[in-house]
Amino acid sequence: MIPLATTFLPAAFYGCAAVARQEWRHYIGRFWQPLLPVAALPLAGAQAIELAGRSLLITQATGQGVQVFVNRCPHRGVAFLPEKAGARPCRKLICPYHGWTYGLDGRLLAAAREADYGDGFDRRAWDLEPVPCQVVAGMIWIALGREPLPLEQQLDLVLEEAQPLLEQPRVVLGRHRQTLACNWKIAHDNTLDDYHVAIAHPATLHREQGPVRLYRHRLGGYANLLATPWPSSASGTAEFLTFGLPPWNHLLLWPDGRLAVISFVPQSLTSCQLELWLLGEACWLPQADRLLQELRSFLAEDQALVESAQQGYATLDASGDASFRPGPPHRLEQRILHHQGLYTSLMPH
Ligand code: FES
Ligand SMILES: [Fe+2]
């Protein structure tokens, strides 16, 4: 069991380029990242996605399932598709530079004027570079580093509490992405923070989560959980589950099967990309815009707070060091301490 942090992570960890490099090597690289719902892909086709400065290509082909590759042609490094092309039905990938043509399984099918390469040219030596991927909860997850821990471990509490609900079929109800002007850890801390909800989201998330005295918390090896009665006015045993999981992800799971996946992917020391996917049964489609808007309302309330906290954390003293000393953690901030205990245990000392 990872020890809970007893104090908040010092402000110096939020604005230092050397720390950010170590995060990738020691912390972020251990984990898996939800990238895209399988339901967003054509049955045979591809989609490009940018994630933390990497361009990835996700393919699906009948009988071959989903695969993820580095979106970079082995010949001269050009991308096969731009992200703005969206999900594109196709049977092969043709490089726009010199026309090398790949199957959706990443194998080179043909190079333009291939005969001129001579006998030494072997197509089998020029596969696309694969990225480890798995499908869980209808989402495609990719490994962010070379030696990720098993995804089931990262999802420990999620699988324990919600596995049957997790695997039910879902369609995409909505997607939202935007840049937040804060370090990813400030956005992640905020979404693990069960102390602020009643104060900062009285008419949005707080209505969904209900009275603070009914909060149920669990802390796993990697994931943590806030469970609240659902619907908050009834006395049933169903719960709305809010999971936090490393490196910067949140899964919100309603008893009716709706699933929101929220990530805060680092862009720079002072910015991150908020990624939100909302999935659910097809019967929710007529209400999809409203449901997405409800989530965006509380995320907009959070945007103002995290961007303000960024200013507070980034203020330097006369000697150029972070001047902010965070206050004492409250009991309702234990999920932040849980995450920061994990973060600290993986970072070099
Ligand atoms: S870079 Fe792709 S074929 Fe040349
Ligand atoms: Fe919030």
Q: What's the β-strand tally?
A: 18
Structural shape: globular
Low-confidence stretches: none
State the helicity in percent bands.
Answer: 10-25%
Write a compact overview of the structure shown.
The protein has 349 residues and is an alpha+beta fold.
In words, what does this structure look like?
The protein is 24% helix and 29% strand. With 349 residues, the chain is of the alpha+beta class. It folds into two domains: 11-30 and 150-346, Naphthalene 1,2-dioxygenase Alpha Subunit, Chain A, domain 1, CATH 3.90.380.10; 48-133, Rieske Iron-sulfur Protein, CATH 2.102.10. Strands 12-18-17-16-15-14-13 form a seven-stranded antiparallel beta sheet, with helices on both faces. Helix 4 (184-191) crosses helix 7 (288-314). The longest helix has 27 residues, at 288-314. It is globular, with a radius of gyration of 22 Å. Fe (ii) ion binds at residues 190, 196, 200-201, 302.
How are the SSEs placed, and which strands pair?
Elements: H1 17-27, E1 32-37, E2 45-51, E3 54-61, E4 65-70, E5 88-89, E6 92-94, E7 101-103, E8 108-110, E9 130-131, E10 133-136, E11 139-143, H2 151-154, H3 156-166, E12 171-180, H4 184-191, H5 197-200, H6 205-209, E13 216-219, E14 224-229, E15 239-245, E16 249-253, E17 259-268, E18 271-280, H7 288-314, H8 334-346
Helix pairs in contact: 4-7
The structure holds FE2/S2 (inorganic) cluster (FES) and fe (ii) ion.
List keywords for this structure.
349 residues; binds FE2/S2 (inorganic) cluster; Naphthalene 1,2-dioxygenase Alpha Subunit, Chain A, domain 1; Rieske Iron-sulfur Protein; binds fe (ii) ion; single chain; 2 domains
